[in-house]
């Protein structure tokens, strides 16, 4: 049976991690630009260290990233050479509205994406566009506090209207917010939120989440009105939560973590706040304030498909145990003794992807799209100028096999797969360049030096065969 004939193979990037050129083309400053590399990054992205502009003491990797702003034609040609059917990318909000609240968009920014989409079309690549990939204009953070303010909804919808109208003939697949559940774990990176002392952080996060959920539903309505062919998806960071043991307390804790993870997709796909969320948020005094009509908006405009990132599963233990904690990701997790780990301490769990696919499909019964999955690793260029990244091929092969099993044997409805990332870029979590994901090596080093030359890795040729064979040749 295998993957459907029109399966959308490709790769995924985010503007703030690959474009650079943040002071060019009339672009304004965004939250993701001022997230520094180094020891203060975690404090900034979690909203516990206020940073709304660049200083002379930190390095800001997003400023240049891998300079796709000037290399996009070369990069998309390489994607075309691999045979991409789709390219998941994001729009930099501040290229279109530098402050975020202007009446008229920045034409130079719009023209840039006109050219990007024209290149995609040249190679028969269907764009899958994330409207907000951890993107919030600094001006709106200073003015209103980012997504903690309901006024953000109108600014976001103005952006949507411009994008849906301008690119009506170029784009039909859209995602409203990237990893929307990350607002609970990295609220400054996810929603432009930083906290003052003694603020009720959970209440602020869930209020901001409500604003994004309403904005997402209204964006679905607008997308369908402007072009009935548009398909709009939600996107969340997925990965099943395993109980650390069969101790009932561990099983319960894992269930609660799963529910927290699915909360956003529950609202976006089903159209209402689930009963567990209502009960817990009210009990904890953090249920968001809603305006009349909000619940009807959520109910009437659910998403067309479900997309998610999958890097690893999680292992959850109830408080009070003596289990070892896993390193790496922003999600807290116990160390799973049955799994191997990446160089950054992330568990490697291909079967977990099949489990997650089944859980998500059982839960929503809507088409699914895996829009991020990949291995961050240190790559070495050998004396012949080649990069033999067999470890990346092994990781991706095992995950694509698990994905194929979910389709063939379990009957899940899967639209496509875009690996993270087709080209080396800046890591969102750590801000590092040495944590490479791509099929394409970029000569950019941790200290910011390098020629920015692009070079095909061994995995480049491997993925090309995977696409050519529609996932049969792994």
Automatic annotation (TrEMBL):
Keyword Hydrolase listed: yes
One Gene Ontology biological process: carbohydrate catabolic process
Active site location: 372 (nucleophile)
Molecular function terms from GO: beta-glucosidase activity
Keywords: Glycosidase, Hydrolase
Recorded family membership: Belongs to the glycosyl hydrolase 1 family.
Name of this protein: 6-phospho-beta-glucosidase
Taxonomic source organism: Anaerostipes butyraticus
